[in-house]
Amino acid sequence: MSTNAPEEGALRIGLLDFEPIRIAGLEDVLGELPHLQAVPTTLEVAMEDESLPLILVGLRDPLDSFETLARLKARRPAVKLILMGAEANEETIISAIAAGAKGYLEETVTPAQVTHCIEVVQSGSIWAPRKVLSKFVDRMLHTTEKRVLRHHFTFTEREQEVLRLLVAARSNREIAQSLGIEERTVKAYVGRLMRKVGVQNRIALSIHAASRVFGLEE
Question: Is the pLDDT of residue 26 over 70?
Answer without folding.
Answer: yes
